[in-house]
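Z., the sequence and structure:
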Amino acid sequence: MFKRTKVTDGTATGQGPDAENWDGKEVGFRKKSKVPGVMITQYIEKLPEGKSHPDFTRKPIALTIQEGKFAFFKAIVTGDPKPTVVWSRNNGDVSDPARYQSKYDPNSNEHTFEMPHVKPDQADTYKCFAKNEYGQAMVTVVLNVIEVGFKMTKAPQQQAEVANCNFKKVLKRRSKVVPKAEEPEKKEGEIDPKFWELLMSADKKDYERICAEFGVTDFRWMLKKLNEMKREREEEQAEFVKNLSDLKPIHINADGTASFELEFDLLDPSSSIYLYKDGEMIPYTKELGDKMKHCLRKVGRKYIFSMRDLMPEDAGFYQLDVEDVNMFSTDFKMVDFLVKIQEVKAMEREDAVFECVISAPLSKLMWFGKNMPLEQGDKYDIEVSEDKLIHRLVVKDCMVVDKGIYAACAGIKSCNAWLVVEADKGAPKGKKTARKTTRAGGSGTDLQKVAQEQQQILDKEREERKEKIKAAREAAAEAAAAEEPEKTADSGAGKDKGAAVKVERIDKTSVAATTTVAGDSGSGHSAGKASGGAKQDGSHADAGGGHSAGKASGGARKDGSIADAGGGHSAGKASGGAKQDGSHADAGGGHSAGKASGGAKQDGSPADAGGGHSAGKASGGAKQDGSHADAGGGHSAGKASGGAKQDGSHADAGGGHSAGKASGGAKQDGSHADAGGGHSAGKASGGAKQDGSHADAGGGHSAGKASGGAKQDGSHADAGGGHSAGKASGGAKQDGSHADAGGHSAGKASGGAKQDGSHADAGGGHSAEEASGGSRQDGSLADAGGGHSAGKASGGAKQDGSLADAGGGHSAEEASGGARQDEPLADAGGEPGITSGLSDIHAIRGQPAELTVKMNTDCDGAWFKDGEPLKSGGGISITKDANIHKLTIHSCRDTDSGLLRFVSGDLSTEGRITVGDVPEFDEDDLHKFSKPVIVRVGQNAAFKMPFQPQESLTVSWFKDGTELKDGGGVKIVREPNHSRLLLRDCLRSDSGEIKIQLKNPFGAVEATSQLIVLDRPGPPEGPVETVETTSSVIEIKWNPPKDDGGSAVTNYIIERQERGHSLWTKLGDVSAEKTSFRDRNVTHGKKYSYRIYAENPQGLSDSLETADSIMAGIMILSGPPGKPKVVSTSKTCINLTWTPPEDDKGVPIIGYQVEKRKKDTNQWLALNAINEPIEDVNYAVKDVTEGAEYEFRVSAINESGAGDASPPSAMACAKNPNMRPCFKDPEDFLVVRAGNSVRVKISYEAEPPPHITWLKDDEPIAPWINVINTEGMSQLVIPSSKRSDSAIYTIKAKNSVGEAFFDVEVRVTDEPKCPGPVELEQTVYGKVAVSWVPSPDQELDDRLYYVVSQHDSNTRMWKTVADRLFANTYTAHNILPGIEYHFRVYAKNDMGLSDPSQSPTWGANSNRVPISSNGVSSMEISFERPPSILVPLKVHTPPKGYQLYMTCAVRGCPTPNVSWYLNNTCINSDKNYYITNSCGVCSMYILRVRENDGGEYRVVAVNSLGKAECSTKLTVRD
């Protein structure tokens, strides 16, 4: 695991320097450091002379280290006076001396911060502060720790940290793509995040493939969203990198590794780079020689990620991040072979076919033949089917040397098979057989069928993804249109103590599909369940009281609040729910030992609590001003308490006639209304009004409960009594409300459907069935008659989704009340009730408005506006028709806005009327907007529409009826008094109607305009018709273009091209009305092509071109040329010549066509096409078969075509003339690794075929060395080479004409063995002599040399200090005290480097030259010495033309002068020799050895004390 903490700027409290020791100064001057990343603050404006603020000359370097290793940071600071250095970290302290140690080395002036045995929790951003009295310098550095293994104590520790809310320690760096193990369950059709990551890193040509893979079909939507995401990603990337380019997706290389690469420049070189696989961070190395699986190396600007030892589990989604920003994403897939390649047996000169089928489309497989990669060419054809599932390799013209193992590789999957080539026994000896036209091999199965089945599987998966995406979008659209919160309603009370009551959701089948509001539920007298429905705002209505031992709980509203809960008659508890502000709604009284408590309102005060009939307590809740509301009286040991009004006074509590409770509702001022007496053991409860008060509740005639329904503002309407144990369900009216349902029987009555699709009322059913209202056109249910049996009483759903009231149920079923459009409860029995109440409306100023209230009985009522009574007059009419009450406003004015309330006895309903105007446009602005906007392609189109500022005004823009959204090329600006639309980079397809719509609650208004985008026209419609063609005239005709580009076509331009020429010539133009042209400048017999352009003011269209050339007049063919003559023949070519025709018929000859006929056949074959004439009167025929006889004939070609053929030539045989053997471009040097096979291929030409002989060092070759001779080539093969196979191999080719020789030097070697132990010795201050024991391979390989690398504790990097050393010593310079040095010595030859030999550590206190102390006399030492040869020259015998190194080692003090001599002639100044002398190692380099370079070489070293010399001989081989 790779732990990484976020780099933060600034220093929090306790993270920087200690506050006791540092008096931070807020005022300072920012200074720039020469070292990037250093922040300097100078305390004074001008520094005293000789003084300076702190600065870093070397800052700490970011470190990534494995857990348990030794981590340290080093820094060097400057400043006068000398700065004080303090270290700190962002997320923790560094005071523990066991984990953090600060050190200072006065010799090197280095400040070191050490962390022995580093742990993962020490990964952090560290800061180094340097301060003196003139300023401070600060630098940050990041420590990353790679965790080793998984710790069993880690998971419990993380759980504890989560429990303690310490999330900072739990969070780890993760990719934006979640790992598969942690992926949340995807919703149906949800698009994988990898889709967008892949698109942002892919080329445009791959978009279609990626969309098809993930099932995305809406390309316009995809491109729009992709552009938005790309802009955001580029902004994020710009913070860390620049010049991001050349993104190459992951692919498998020929060496079996996989890699991807990209180029960018880091803005901060210390930025961290992370690699992820499927969202999990993976460790990697930057060292090429490391053994880790993953490697990330940098070559210039290019970053290359590679992965070796591929396994199936390596497939996945790879990402590269810089800090927290993704730079590149690629998907690594593994495919498998459904049908593998099979063994092929082919005859010589026959084609062989290998076929396979893979499991997923792949554009290219890697084919190998005999361990060599194969490419498309003359020898091999690589074919791929259209669906990219079937892959074929065709080995053309198989020969015996082609036999072997062939393989197909797809990633880490591969399959192989043998190719067996059998010689053609029927072929004549000594002659090459003709190539066969048949193919051998194949898979033997119906590959097309297998591929089709696999394609069907892939298509099915793709279609399933598309369907899921489509379904998800439809579901999202439906969810956006109508949200359906699933909340629970208030629970009712039941009498039966033996059964438990639980609250559950209302059955969705009883709720309209487009709404989410449910009404109050009636009370249940048995062990049934009472559940309140959900209201329009998402809250649940009150639930009737439950008489059982269950718990009655109010439902939750949309804002999270709970509605009122009815009283419980048993040991349960009745609790009020929480409202939007977090307060609780009223709780009904509890009839048992439970407690009824009012919920808390917005100010945190509790709401009213109903009286308790048992030992419970009924307490009034506190209102907004902190006062308590009235509590209904309790007839038992409960407490009845009156609530406090808004002014703090208490309202009266109604008396209870039975064991029930009578509770008055709260009025607008916070007081409670009177509650009617309860006639039985039921409970009469008043509903809550708009201001939170309760309305009066009618008396209950049975053991049921009469509960007021909730109005639109959340108040309760009156509930009628329930007469039976059946279910009475009211149907939904056109406005969505339910009518009253009376329950007279146990049957089921269902209303029929009306003309508008709704159901008529259903009469009462007398059996044990259910009475249910029918459904109307708007989806609501019609009224259902009451049921007297054990059915279920349920309110239907209204237009707004609310449920109508259900009458009380006397049985063990559920009574559920529905809510009307204004959300009051309809009466379920015969008691007076409001069946259709008031709702909020919006009226247009000056227009009439009508409000209607419908009662279930004929009774009187009164109207109020804002608390004041209303009467007819003053533009208002109040009428009553039986049980329907109407208030009509004849002409609405602003003063008519307000809260209207209708009161009838103890019943009331209310609604708000708002008067306003429909939005309007100014006539001048409307006229100006209606004018079309005309722009050219690529320009921007702008529309602006002013309007009067209004509240609740929605502005929408449309194009051709489709609403425009801000984003992409569309920019919409909304200001208080106008709106602007900008369409960027318009296309021709953007032309159309532009519409703006203003909409408020009172209506909508629209204005339209036109957008015309001008462009050049489309091409004229074809095809081009030929009207007339004669020897002097050609007339053509065409049709106008389909698209004129928005402006009329002005004219057409015609161009012509003569056949055989590349130049197009303009003939002229014609007007737009004329669509034909006569070309009078034509030559008889010639062919012409024409193209036509349409032109308008915007430019020229694309051209319409004739499909075929048109000839002027009739055809005139030339006469026959002279009889062809054979000039020369060979086995691959026959050269011909002929004379032009005597009669060319007056038409110039363009060229000739040559035909051939093989002996004993009747078919003439053309060697060149008519449109590719031979311009000369001679031709080399290369398409011949060796030994075959041919005759030839020639035809002359003019503008009309090929004329008559000439007489045939004499028979000519394709064979070579006698020729002495000669070799073609042979290679004279070959290096092979020991153990590998040696293949020496030599091509030659000879006639007749020569006899081939191979020699090794002028001796016959061993019997285990194979020689393969084919026509024109001889190959020497050593299956498994050894060092002893190194030699000069000679090929000898001899025939009757002559013979030829050629030498090839073969060197068999291996990676050298490492040198022996390395010794260090210092004889001179600042220099160390490095010597080592030679490699065991030095004697076996004269091309072996040594490489020395040096490492010091200062730079902490290995660097090569010496290369191409042929000696066993090296002198290291600039060896400084106080620094540790290490040396590595490698042996290197043509195969590469050996393992290194490590030197002992050369440090500050080891192997120093003793220095005499002051005051102590010491003997004087002299280092002067005469020259001496440490390593003499070696004997060399290089081949001619090869390069040569000649070295020796010389020592002497003073440094001797070295001279080189060839045959006693000094060559120091000869430019043919490159001579160097580096620290006593004298080297001489010859780029290409010549014959005159041979001889005796001598090196002479001379100084003041003497002379030394050594010599060797150089022999140059041919």
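The first strand starts at residue 2 and ends at 3. Helices lie at 154-163, 167-170, 193-201, 207-214, 219-237, 447-481, 923-929.

Let me know what you think.
H.
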